Amino acid sequence: MKKMVVPVLAASLTLSTFNAAMAAPKEEGKIKSVEFIGMDAPKTDQEKNNLMYTRASVKVTYNDGTKKTVPLSYETLFRPGDVINGNTAGVTINAKGEIMTKANGKPYVSSAPDMNSLMKVPGLPENTYYLISHYESMPKNENGLENPGAMSLSTVKMDPATGKLTVVDIKPIDFSEVHGIWKPCAGILTPWNTHLGSEETDPDARAHEVNPTSSAVTNFTKNYYGDASLIGNPYYYGHVPEVTVKADGSTKVVKHYSMGRMAFERVKVMPDNKTVIYGVDSNPGGFFMYVADQEKDLSAGTLYAAKWVQTGTENGGSAKLEWVKLGHATDQEIEKLASTLKFSDMFEVTDDAAKGKAEGYTAIKTAANGKKVEWVKVKPGMEKAAAFLETHRYAAYLGATVEFNKMEGLDFNEKDNKAYLAISYQENTMLPEPTAPVDHIQLPKISAGGIYEIDFKPNRKTTDGQKIDSHYVPVSMAGYLMGEDLAAPDADGNTANVDKIANPDNVIYSEKMKTLFIAEDSGHHQNNYTWAYNVETKELSRILSVPGGGESTGLQMLENLDGHAYLMNSSQNPAYVGYISGLPSFDEKKNKK
Questions:
Q1: How many other C-beta atoms are found inside a 10 Å radius of the C-beta of residue 244?
Q2: How many CB atoms neighbour CB 302 within 10 A?
Q3: What is the mean pLDDT of residues 261-278?
Q4: Is residue 136 within 8 Å of 149, Cβ to Cβ?
Q5: d(Cα 135, Cα 109) in Å, to the nearest integer?
Q6: Looking at residue 121, what is its pLDDT?
Q7: 321 forms bridges with which residues in the sheet?
Q8: What is the DSSP letter of 340?
Q9: b/e map 317-337, b = 16+ CB within 10 Å
Q10: Are 509 and 516 in contact (CB under 8 A)?
Q11: Taking burial as the number of CB atoms within 10 A of a residue's CB, which of 413, 423, 506, 561 is the most buried?
């Protein structure tokens, strides 16, 4: 870990003087490299408990040899509960578009902001943008029911001289056409300038069917629609929502039922604009791939699940990846099935191992059914429905690997044709399990988790010999940047090495900076951090600290937004929405001689 070494002159620069300095010296030429100079872990009570801050720096080297070192800073856009242009940030709305309020008339406000998509939308005035933000959870409603999740749309203005961003308006996004939004977590801005979000849990439809009147999804439905007589439908939730924003601030929302139903974390659209790989936050969970029928259109495609074929156990382990075809579908046909089917229409199931063995059932273990082994049979003609509405169960049924423990965010390095995938905790089903129905993953325990590197090849075949029509098929996976568990807590209570990552969650890769940014959701560090890892120099730098108890969330990298660069970075509990400034912009007009 490099300690912060910043010249006194550079340390005194403000955001405005930095941007002026970066803009002025045109003779310096294009940027050759970027190096992050990390900061120490927090030491004082103020740093540990009360600050969302950075004391890191960035050193920029230009092609002509000129170098510049400038401190980073954290800029807060808003905190949930702030009133902006008469509107409260972080609220949720019901199916009628009404802000949901407590008995005292005050709105429910989320303390869990997550994903950010800052976007340029054609037709907006110059230096004006929209920002979509997720709110992963809402406080429990005072009537004991589940509050709906939320996304908001902010209007953001930039000061072109300094690059400073200011939110001037904010409003909730309406999800009433798709039955509301369920626990939105991570997401991305697509290459075609829409927002792809996530629903982080898929309600257990088997458990719901046993007791539908009081299930979590029914409590959500009653609250969202304001009707105590309603029964919820679990198959409406656990999907990838896509949000399109127009210049007038209107939004169009769809859910992609053909991408399967699971606990989505972050999906990544590959450079062909057809292939999508998934981070899935289940325990246990699988690794999935979707190949759309047409570019920039995720309404129809083929869904696959990975099989881990282990090749090693060192440094987080390694494996070859094989692919099991689950099926092909359109959003329209699966949404229709979702509205008409229940779990027992698709599966015969028992928890009695003797009965299961005797009658030819298949033993599986998924996050549903409380991670207990269940014995299932797919009913004749229900294969497609099972594949897209009970994706984890069906994947396990066909022999794919459903043993990953809290798979989280992922991103792609196009130049090197590699992806980086976070496994937050290498525990539980990733360890040897001699009594499990299958035991593909057998690795040593690393409670701090780590980042895995994925390699790709084109036009591979499935386990049954069918061609996969994609140039971006993951073929291997290996530990890349792992955390380190401590034998005993250190003086600050950390149970993982404080100078290495622990329990990575959000990740985002910058092609221009050759840097992987990593945000933590750790119980093993007393404070969670955001890190910068240079994939060429292998230098790991701590660049942000979140107040104690908080989670670092919402990473988005904008390498050049009208002459300025931003790393969007939020936190949950305590809640901040903001960005790291001081980054060099890869604006060719600004940097050319």
A1: 15
A2: 20
A3: 97
A4: yes
A5: 9
A6: 98
A7: 308
A8: H
A9: bbbebbbbbbbebbbeebbeb
A10: yes
A11: 506
In one-letter notation, the amino acid at residue 159 is D
pLDDT tens digits for 468-504? 999 999 999 999 999 999 999 999 999 999 999 999 9
CA distances from 124 to 128, 131, 248, 578 (A): 6, 13, 8, 21
Run of H or E including 291:
strand 288-294
**218 phi, psi to nearest 5 deg:** -70, -40
**Of 307, 569, 542, nearest to 441 (Cα)?**
307
In this predicted structure, the answer to whether residue 11 has a pLDDT above a threshold of 80 is no
What single-letter amino acid sits at 568? M
Q: Which residue has the tokens 């929302």?
A: 253
Quote the pLDDT of residue 590. Answer: 60
- Check if the beta carbon of residue 120 is closer than 8 Å to that of residue 158: no
Q: What is the mean pLDDT of residues 245-251?
A: 98
Other beta carbons within 10 Å of 87: 16
Element (H, E) at 504: strand 504-510
- Using alpha carbons only, what angle is made at residue 191 by residues 189 and 192, rounded to the nearest 5 degrees? 95
Distances in Å between the Cα of 483 and the Cα atoms of 108, 406, 486 are 37, 15, 10
b/e string for 111-148 if b means 16 or more Cβ within 10 A? bbbbbbbbbeeeebeebebbbbbbbbbbeebeeebbbb
309-312: long-range pairs with CB below 8 Å, 24+: 309/440, 310/440, 310/441, 310/442, 310/443, 311/476, 312/478
Q: What is the pLDDT of residues 337-370, one digit of tens each?
A: 999 999 999 999 999 999 999 999 999 999 998 8
Q: Which two tokens stand for residue 285?
A: 């969970």
Helix extents (H) in 341-390: 343-346, 353-358, 383-389
Residue 145 C-alpha from the chain's centroid: 26
Residue 502's contacts (CB-CB under 8 Å, 6 or more residues apart) are: 448, 449, 483, 494, 496, 520, 522, 524, 525
Any idea what DSSP says for residue 524? S
- CA 80: distance to chain centroid? 20
Tokens standing for residue 495: 């149970």
By residue count, the chain amounts to 593
Q: What is the DSSP letter of 153?
A: E
Q: How many CB atoms lie within 10 A of CB 218?
A: 22
* Model confidence pTM above 0.70: yes
Residue 114 above 70 pLDDT?
Answer: yes
- 444 upstream amide cis, omega within 30 of 0: no
Q: Which of 519, 523, 524 is nearest to 497 (CA)?
A: 524
Going by DSSP bridges, is the β-strand pair 551-561/564-572 parallel, antiparallel, or unpaired?
Answer: antiparallel
Least Cα distance to 129 among 189, 75, 185 occurs for 189
In this structure, what token pair is assigned to residue 536?
Answer: 């060429």
pLDDT, residue 128, reads: 98
Among the listed residues 270, 288, 14, the one whose alpha carbon sits nearest the alpha carbon of residue 163 = 14
Question: How many angstroms separate the CA atoms of 575 and 579, rounded?
Answer: 13
Three-state SS for 83? strand
pLDDT > 70: percent of the chain: 94
Q: Which helix (H) or strand (E) holds 245?
A: strand 240-245
What is the residue type of 307? K
Q: What is the model's pLDDT at position 563?
A: 95
Two structure tokens written together for 473 = 């098929």
Phi, psi of 38 (to 5 degrees): -75, 165
- Using the structure block, give the residue that is written with the tokens 């002025």: 24
